[in-house]
Amino acid sequence: MNKRKLAFYFMAMPAVLLFFVFHTYPALQGIFYSFTNWNGYGDWDFVGLKNYLNVFKDSRAIHAYLFTFKFAIVSTIIVNVFSLLIAIGLNSKIKGRNFFRGVYFLPNILSILIVGFIFNYIFAHIIPQLGEDLHLEALSKNILGDPDLAWIGIVIVAAWQAIAFNTILYLAGLQTISTDIYEASSIDGAGKWREFWSITFPLIAPFFTINMVLALKNFLMVFDQIVAMTGGGPGTSTESISYLIYKGGFQGGEFAYQSANAVVYFIVIVVVSLVQLRILQRREVEM
Amino acid sequence: MNLRKTNWPVQILIFLGSLLILFPLYLTITIALKDPQQMAQSVLSWPSEIHWENFSKAIEMTNFFQAFKNSAIITICTVVLTLLTNSMVAYAIARNMHKKFFKFLYYYLVSAMFIPFPIIMLPIVKQTSSWGMDNQIGLIFLYVVYGLSFNIFVYVGYIKSIPKELEEAATMDGAGTWKTFWKVIFPLLTPINATVAILTALWAWNDFMLPLIILSDKDQATLPLVQYVFQGQFSTDYNLAFSSYILALAPMIIVYLFAQKWIINGVTKGAVK
Q1: Residue B1 scores a pLDDT above 50
Q2: Residues B14, A86: C-beta atoms closer than 8 Å
Q3: What chain A residue is nearest to B271 in terms of C-alpha separation?
Q4: Could you report the predicted ipTM of this complex, rounded to two decimals?
Q5: Which residues form the ABC transmembrane type-1 domain (chain A) (predicted)?
Q6: Model confidence over B133-159: pLDDT tens digits?
Q7: In this complex, do B256 and A19 lie within 8 Å of one another by their Cβ atoms?
């Protein structure tokens, strides 16, 4: 019997130890360095909370937080609205259902970086051309070159890709609802709108919660799209938090300072996710 | 439900929506097959004369086969090792959740899902390079280890639904824990293994951030990294750039075309569990 128990430890421990060495330990190191003035090489001293105070005073960091939140909130809403609509569409009686499911999931299998490059071209060449042909002033320039509008371009690309996965999750949710309920409600004379708010939406509430939390968390970590499309520009207008940490930490010699920024970022993400989970789950119960 | 007729308004909307997905891909293919003169005439039309040589030039410029090999090795090794190790850890945890230690392991691993990567990014680069792991082996390691958080969550839920009687029967026949796992449990995990394999493969194949910061040797670059590195040189020639994008996207698209139903079902079922 003892040998049986021992086997379980041998199954779990190597991987867990590796997880500690390659995940937890670096995370602890990052926290440790955030209290020093290390720039990635050479000597260092403890500086206490100085890095943290500087993060809160740094207009570039504050701008990165504002941009990231604006981007993440707008993208989360857009992605969830469209994913839910598409999932309902794909779940209704249409021809070529499996074909369309295949098409709508396609963006999820493509590299975000390359999708970003392709859309770069569309924003730089195709849309301005279209704008000129149609004599539409608003479309005739590259929005990625405009500090006030570049973020919208990134939202479009991020949504284009993320909708695929969220649609599949919603579709999975819709398939858990028995068709009997709809038949009963249509006999009771419920319209489509009523049917959605009284049956569909409450019954897929857990899927709504998980999609919202995952989408917001993923969008708060936006990186590949920024690298592919704007490199944080024009100026620093589309610099996300993870991109700022990457750039400042590796190219700007701000190892310790960006570690402090990463710790702040970590706390922000955990708090946002927990609050969001709390609010959405309470809503699930009430429904 | 099946008795109802086709819902035409929905059919039309779904069709129009799918154009928004297919148009950028159509555009990518046409640009990849044209030369600059044809582009100047019309960007959107199908090429009158197909320039296959764009592909051979792109292959040469990006050293495509090397990058393809690197990506394939990393993806295959990551998927195989992930399936073999992560399921085993999950089994040990799922069957011992009543013990404090294993319960702690479960929450320890799963809660790591919410740690943003940038907090690890700077130290892990130092660590891998000082241990000589700034290469493919290091990357495979990191993918297998970083996948644990999510995979444990998925596997444990699934293993709990497998009746314990099956293992008890195996024990009666004299099989030890290891043998029980490999002969009884692992084969039963096939549906969830498929889901984990698909998600892991997509991640390892398309990931850009880890190769960007970990790999130091240019010859080890993966397909997405190669696109990034050569971006500057492509800027003058969109046709070559787009042929290169197609080459990088094609392997996954081909796999997807053949295994589409399977992939979507895998992800859907993984989500419901």
Answers
A1: no
A2: yes
A3: A169
A4: 0.89
A5: 65-276
A6: 999 999 999 999 999 999 998 899 889
A7: no
Domain assignment present for residue A22? The answer is no
Closest CB to A117 among B1, B25, B227: B227
Between the alpha carbon of residue A174 and those of residues A179, A199, A286, the distances in Å are 10, 11, 20
Residue of A2, A5, A11 for testing the chain B interface, max B β-carbons within 10 Å: A11
Report the C-alpha gap between A217 and A230 in whole angstroms. 21
**How many interchain CB pairs under 8 A, A with B?**
246
Closest chain B CA to residue A31: B119
Chain B residue at shortest CA distance from A109: B202
Output the pLDDT for position A286.
60
Please list, in sequence order, all residues whose beta carbon lies within 8 angstroms of the beta carbon of residue B154, skipping any fewer than 6 positions away.
B192, B195, B196, B270, B273
- Considering only the beta carbons, identify the residue of A8, A9, A27 that sits closest to B120: A27
Mean pLDDT of chain A: 89
- Give the domain range for residue A151: 46-286
Share of chain A above pLDDT 90, in %: 54
The structural domain count of chain A equals: 1
pLDDT tens digits along A235-274: 889 999 999 999 998 888 888 999 999 999 999 988 998 8
How far is A148 from chain B, CA to nearest CA, in Å? Answer: 25
Q: Tell me where in chain B the CATH 1.10.3720.10 domain(s) lie.
A: 62-272
> Would you say B201 and B75 are in contact if contact means Cβ atoms under 8 Å apart?
yes
Q: Domain holding A63: CATH number?
A: 1.10.3720.10
DSSP string, A212-234: HHHHHHHHHT--HHHHHHTTT-S
What mean pLDDT do residues B216-224 have?
A: 89
pLDDT value of position B149: 92
